[in-house]
Design a protein that fits this description.
The complex is a heterodimer. Chain A is an all-beta fold. In chain A, strands 2, 5, 6, 10, 11 and 12 form a 6-stranded mixed beta sheet that branches. A 4-stranded antiparallel beta sheet of chain A has the order 3-9-8-7, with no helix packed on it. The mean pLDDT of chain B is 91. The chains are: A mainly beta, B mainly beta. At the A-B interface, strand 5 and strand 6 of A face strand 5 and strand 10 of B.
């Protein structure tokens, strides 16, 4: 079946540190891949996405590359800020008309 | 545009009581979804709808019912609330089709406590 596995949190970093949140997936066919972010007290919002192999999604300094050979979509940012503190969800959209599949989320805390 | 709105924001129920959560979207989206979010479990899909008058079961549908009588509204009902249904509920919506471009837009959530 389709599934997403994310690194467990929480992740605590100092401001300006490098961030990597690992995400791997299992899916048949050619899924699209997403990162959603949930800021405290809010709903989720799309951060970035990639729809085919080797695509790189980017937004707000975050990047993730769709690696079909390693079935991964790791989220990276070169220099995190306190305002990046949130929960990050990796998700995949399977081929066909079926809903998104979310990972369990990774909580990031950035301290000044 | 208000986007996706949810009513109420917070509710306390006693075991066995019933309630309905309302989700409304003003983006003319075909697809709507109800999720629950629990600590360490991520988001789990309860029910979804691919258009007005349609509903389908998600990953954790037991104990919930839904209705999509109008395109802009998606209702989630709890007929007999149980403490296991204590959670934060999120509604989301998305455009129809174009599966590889789908972006879901989420509401702010409803926090439900069942005593």
């Amino acid at each position: 079946g389709n599934s997403v596995t994310q690194m467990e949190g929480p992740v605590t970093l100092s401001e300006e540190a490098f961030l990597t949140i690992n995400c791997t997936y299992t899916a048949t066919g050619y899924p699209s891949l997403f990162w959603y972010v949930q800021y405290p007290g809010e709903g989720l919002q799309l951060l970035l996405k990639a729809t085919k192999a080797d695509d790189k999604g980017s937004n707000k300094g975050f990047e993730a590359t769709y690696r079909k050979e390693t079935t991964s979509f790791h989220l990276e940012k070169g220099s995190v800020q306190v305002s990046d503190s949130a929960v990050y969800f990796c998700a995949l959209l399977p081929s066909g008309n079926t809903p998104l599949v979310f990972g369990k989320g990774t909580r990031l805390s950035v301290i000044a | 545009n208000a986007g996706v709105t949810q009513t109420p924001k917070f509710r306390v129920l006693k075991t066995g009581q019933s309630m309905t959560l309302l989700c409304a979207q003003d983006m003319n989206h075909e697809y709507m979804y109800w999720y629950r979010q629990d600590p360490g479990m991520g988001l789990r899909l309860i029910h979804y709808s691919v258009g007005e008058g349609t509903t389908a079961k998600g990953e954790v549908p037991d104990g919930y019912n839904v209705s999509r009588l109008k395109k802009q509204n998606f209702l989630l009902g709890l007929e007999s609330a149980a403490p296991s249904q204590t959670s934060v509920y999120f509604c989301a919506s998305s455009y129809k089709g174009l599966a590889d471009q789908e972006t879901q837009y989420f509401g702010p959530g409803t926090r439900l406590l069942v005593l």
